[in-house]
Design brief:
Blueprint (H helix, E strand, L loop, with lengths): L6 E2 L2 H11 L13 E7 L7 E7 L6 E8 L6 E4 L5 H10 L8 H11 L8 E3 L13 H10 L4 E5 L2 E10 L2 E10 L4 E10 L11
Antiparallel strand pairs: 1-2, 2-3, 3-4, 4-5, 6-8, 7-8, 8-9, 9-10
Length: 205
């Protein structure tokens, strides 16, 4: 969830939101004096923004993500639980905007939201400082840089077909994604391009 333009939520509003997000967990994770709340726009939703809440009451700090619509006491908050379901179930409410300009960002968001023992599926279009989890050898860096490229988008009768590069665990894959107009995503085909690379995601939670 690193590629968003995060804005700090003022303390006065943060207190109100903490009272809304705490009941969504099994215990009160967040307190006003030991938490940081940030919010980001999502280009593929007209009604939802992304709320990021970090508690510093634990070591290491724990970060949770929520979809949020509205402001202050009237805000509706939906907890992201490591699966695709909170996104798919609430797409109609979020005012989903899917077009050739937003579909790759949306697919990246959905894949990133799904957490497994190997981390999340990371749809990548370029190599940056977040690509590697440890120092690659010059050959490994060259191999990964050669494989990563922008997603290819094709409009279909009922949505979009994406030809993408994904990182998962220590491997690089090429995959075909089918994105329906209602936002449902299915991985149609995948092929392993390289493995054993220093690209594992870093777990903070």
């Amino acid at each position: 969830m690193a590629d968003f333009n995060w804005n700090e939520i003022p303390d006065a509003e943060a207190g109100i939101l903490i009272k809304k997000i705490n009941p969504l967990s099994s215990f009160d994770m967040f307190s006003e004096d030991r938490s940081r709340l940030q919010i980001a726009d999502l280009p593929f939703y007209s009604n939802f923004k992304l709320l990021q809440a970090t508690t510093f009451s634990s070591i290491p700090p724990v970060t949770m993500h929520y979809l949020i619509s509205g402001k202050g006491a009237d805000a509706e908050v939906i907890k992201m639980d490591g699966t695709r379901e909170p996104i798919f179930e609430n797409n109609p409410k979020g005012g989903l905007i899917l077009n050739a300009q937003t579909v790759v960002a949306y697919a990246t968001f959905v894949l990133d939201a799904v957490q497994t023992e190997e981390g999340s599926l990371r749809l990548v279009e370029k190599v940056d400082e977040d690509t590697f989890s440890s120092m690659p050898t010059p050959q490994q860096r060259k191999d990964v840089t050669h494989l990563i490229r922008p997603a290819k988008v094709t409009e279909t009768a009922d949505g979009f077909a994406l030809d993408v590069i994904m990182l998962y665990g220590d491997s690089v894959y090429r995959a075909d994604l089918d994105v329906k107009k209602d936002g449902f995503i299915e991985i149609k085909n995948e092929e392993l391009l390289a493995e054993g690379l220093p690209i594992r995601p870093i777990f903070l939670e």
